[in-house]
């Protein structure tokens, strides 16, 4: 059984964490599959957006420490010995801590999204959750450290004091609180997160891909920069977009009242 289902539907790549009997707890095999799928999406111009979700009503309960330690009952596990030699940071890539593809990543969350699940969430760009979804970074409760980027990312994505409370208490949040503090962007009825995420992905995929990727890169790059440094990055990105043929096609299509035909050039 594949531990991550990788599916293509038009311009959208969907990754489904697929260990439902263990609440989609994350294994090394899953991380390697996510890395490979993201690498494919990064170079495939036909892929405009990535959606990541979990199978059978849960996103992920976090890292499966037994499986990552080589549990023989880890169904579908891959032999990753060579991978650890050739790509020593694949775990960080799989958790979306580093090396994210230049395409928007949308999370569709149902059920539990705890510990490593929330760490993956923080590497996504747009987040939709079912009303009963729960989030949290519980590591401190067990004298562990959430080292896939959360202590750095969370205070940048929500307020400092909220981030400190979440990280230091390890308490869990329901979806409505997560939306209120900005951890997720939208709450929908249970069972509708994936449908809503796919609708957003389709909207993004219909836009100019050069513009989408440039805007996304600026959003990601500028969070740790001064305003002036961010403006300099913005200027470089915007010049490249405005110099493209797609930047001519968009206004032309608007004037002619038709759908644009973007060519990524």
TrEMBL record:
<protein>
    <submittedName>
        <fullName>Crotonase/enoyl-CoA hydratase family protein</fullName>
    </submittedName>
</protein>
<dbReference type="Pfam" id="PF00378">
    <property type="entry name" value="ECH_1"/>
</dbReference>
<dbReference type="InterPro" id="IPR029045">
    <property type="entry name" value="ClpP/crotonase-like_dom_sf"/>
</dbReference>
<dbReference type="InterPro" id="IPR018376">
    <property type="entry name" value="Enoyl-CoA_hyd/isom_CS"/>
</dbReference>
<feature type="region of interest" description="Disordered">
    <location>
        <begin position="242"/>
        <end position="265"/>
    </location>
</feature>
<feature type="compositionally biased region" description="Basic and acidic residues">
    <location>
        <begin position="242"/>
        <end position="259"/>
    </location>
</feature>
<comment type="similarity">
    <text>Belongs to the enoyl-CoA hydratase/isomerase family.</text>
</comment>
<dbReference type="InterPro" id="IPR001753">
    <property type="entry name" value="Enoyl-CoA_hydra/iso"/>
</dbReference>
<dbReference type="InterPro" id="IPR014748">
    <property type="entry name" value="Enoyl-CoA_hydra_C"/>
</dbReference>
